[in-house]
## 1
Amino acid sequence: MRTTAVALLALAGALTLAPSPAGAAEGAEVYRRRCASCHGADGSGGAKKLPPLSSPLVQSRSDADLFTAVARGTADRKMPAFRGKLADAEIAAVVGYLRTLKP
């Protein structure tokens, strides 16, 4: 558990930096493969009518909160956990990509 907390803190610190073009491209690819089927190709909420990922509701969350939501899933279980399915670096790249989405 302690190792996980340390890894999350390290990633949260890294996420505060603006995503690099390469990181955003990697995040876009991971998003396309693993997230778009539920959230829509453009992050608009898709067929499940989820909140748009460019919305103030989502964009106001910290990078660490978004990382945790992707890694652990959401309490309401609408979003599954991706830890173990995606590497931490891939989750961080997706969070960086989410920051590029505009309403």
## 2
Amino acid sequence: MKIAIATSGRFHVLDLARELHRLGHEVKFYSYVPVARAEKFGLPAACQRCLLRYVLPLAYLSNRGPAFLRRLADLLLIQLLDRVIAWKLEKCDVFIGMSGLCVASARAARSKYGAKIFIERGSTHILRQCVVQEQLQRIGAQTPPIPAREVRRELASYDLADVIVIPSLHVEESFQPYPGPREKLFRNPYGAELAQFLPTATPPSLPRTLLFVGQWSYRKGCDLWERVMRDLPGVRLIHVGGWGDAPRPKTGQFVHHDAVNEWELPKYYAQAHVFVLASREEGLAKVLLQAAACGVPIVCTDQTGGRDLWPMLGDESLVRVVPVDDVAAFIGAVQQALAMAIKQPGPRSLPVEKREQLSWRAYAQRYSARLAQAGPAA
């Protein structure tokens, strides 16, 4: 099958492109990711259509320009990249594009080649996301409203889609209140690089250690950690990631490390008794899959995608999911997870068949089966 995949960055669709290529599909990957960088993630140069030269000034401003220009540069970059993809698009049976980016390009894939349109939506429905943004602002988050132009592009991409690909159950639930055919939704949880995230040994019983990987922000629920740590004396929290808009903890139980490359994360998972994620809004946090692949028990909210790991792992005690913003429930789940973790010394490994369900290969196999259902281009 001829498959075009379009994105504005790496995201998870680079992993998807690599694995679909390995499964025998003819893949063309349209992005401004440099060819050499994408090759490092296993995608051959022959599969790539790098469009960086067409969007370079806007891409630079979007990433490194003055703060007041970045938002405008983002909007202009998306529009320009979409049009360039539409212009350069080669024949395809299926077009897989990121929501909000692919409007003109999705229309071109359908009108030129009769392609089926798969739209990737990694977060909750855009209108639900607008509601969450307003809620975050009320509690002190420095998150600007989502521009109306972005909302319109998102909704347009949903309308164009034959299939809307989403990563988790709570994202699926976020689509329910809004107009649109429910049969478009295809839920497929992401994967992890299993060769990189290997099983770990349970660390020494003291200090009892929690790990959070991600930006320190209100969106990630980090303003709650002062209260959580106060009720968990003797428990250490390691944070790996950048500083966002949430207040920094003033407790000696907190240890911070700046953001690191993904391949450096396993050494931090190996230090943790429990991985924690208190997010108020996620699609499916890939750090959950990484932690699970390393054998680390997880405590997370119901807005992170944690429920989608249950059928993969076959053991709900490995991923404790609590209601968002319920601090008491979160503390209780952490205590239970710590007690379980400390009683299980030695290697933390999943059965081979369960671990394989966490892989990018398994993700692509599920995707490939859904592509086959869509049938050939008209």
## 3
Amino acid sequence: MGSFLIVGGAGYIGSHMIRALVERGREVITLDDLSLGHRAAVTGGEFIQGDLGDMDLLGRIFQKYRVDCVMHFAAFALVPESMANPLAYYDNNTARTTRLLTAMRDHGVDRFILSSTCAVYGQPEKSPITEETPTQPINPYGRSKLMVELILEDCAAAHGLKFTSFRYFNAAGANEKGDIGEDHDPETHLIPLVLKTALGQRGPIKIFGTDYDTPDGTCLRDYIHVDDLALAHYLAAERMLDGGPGGIYNLGTETGLSVREVVDLSRKVTGRPIESLEAERRPGDPARLVGSAGKARRELGWRPAYDDPERIVASAWKWHQAHPRGYGG
């Protein structure tokens, strides 16, 4: 059946991955240092608090449990922070992942799934982005993830590692049960920021730039429900566990939503007059970041359940209403 070590499972995407695996009857072990995650987000399996770069701890885990596949969700992921403190990103995202891979090799664990990012593409000239789009990251965050992908390729050649890397865009929404969701500090993602405005927890939402070459002049981004992301990871794991290959995949919608569309959709879902303010463009914001998922659909049989963006926002709104202070209340 397969047992899984989820690194960073107390975070937003990792916690939904755990839910998906437990609901399918899989054995799950979570490793998280809780520096950014929440213990309450881990709703199944066994939890171990610790550092993914702790070789002694990793050795004990791999000796105690029969781990068939490791999934990595423990990266730092704030672009401005990566530019202000690049060494922290290269340490956590790259160097510590290398130690994790070393422990896997030493204990004969040869299947790995990386939660990667569209940031490896930088500012692509064409949209939608495919896996053949050149990788030209423009910040330490994107570079730290691309470095890991290159390391994985080398490990595949040298040690027979099977790996899958998912380059995805904006994870959004929450599990339909409403008990796990998105709780970041600081929060930087658009949908939760808009919903916090709807709850009266912050001021008007700022729309940075209204003169882009998009239908309504605001930036266009891809939003994928977090449970659909978890489904893709599950399908890739099952494929590798059945003896199939890994691969590199984009996960996107090929259409996307503009900033203004997200705000308008949130007004519809919440029934609240969400105030917005137009502001100057932010440096480095591409007009469009939309990804193709054709390869994942063909090779993995990935079929997102949340193809209606209103359902994505509604699931997030359910979480934020029930947890206005996140996991703290």
## 4
Amino acid sequence: MKRRHLTRPTDDDAPLPDASPLIDICFLLLIYFLVAATIVPRESDLSLSLPVPTRQPDSPEIEAILIRIADNGAIEVGSEGSSLPLDREDGSRDLPLLRSHLDLYAAAARAGGSIPVVRVEPSTEASHQRLIDVLNTLAAVGIQSATFPDF
């Protein structure tokens, strides 16, 4: 018969810590942050396209409207000589005057059977956020045809 030897446990036989509660907490935090996060629409989701020359022959010609964004964020509508200042940079991302002006323009263009077309000319020093605000206003009004100048 064999004798048993009493041995002391070595460090290798020490119990390992249980990692399953740590994994549970990680998954709970992940679920919490996914549920608590707000989804912000990306600017690339705006459906803007280049204008297509489709109009009925008997409808009147409606010119494209020109929107200029100045260095300081002020927004003007119209040509060089007859520009109408609408919204200025005051920290607000809403452009109520531009929106009402574009609502009238889009309604007139659609009543005439043509597609409302907008030319956006931002200054080289204008902020990118201000340009995105103008594009968001165009999308809110329903104008999907916008052009930009060649720099």
